[in-house]
DNA-binding helix-turn-helix protein
Amino acid sequence: MSLFVNKWKQTVKIHIIQEVHMKFSSTLKELREQNHVTQNQLASHLKLTRSTIAGYETKGTQPDYERLLQIADYFHVSVDYLLTGSETNGISVPPDSSEYRLLCAYLNLSSDSRQQLFEYTEFLQDQDTKKGRMPK
């Protein structure tokens, strides 16, 4: 891999990490203010100093995973929300649906079988397109 590509990947990774730190800082402060919680109150609950909370909010320092869980629990939000400022919109699949059964079957396949399944799925999609069938 070229030096340029490696540098580019490193730069992108650093940029993403910086964005997460900045978003965490603003999300934490916003949650704290919306819930009328002072830095001292949050620090006391988490058994930290006020300056540690201030560091999270202004200096870009970030807590370890255990502390993130405690903060998320305190504000009744997900860790994803703390880090990104939004809840992830994962796909919800009812366990009694054919989609769920298909997903479970897929997850139990070997990587070779998964590749074959992808190829077969593409074949079926092409057939549907040729016949003018649209997905429901």
In short: The longest helix spans residues 3-34. Confidence is low (pLDDT under 50) at residues 11-21.
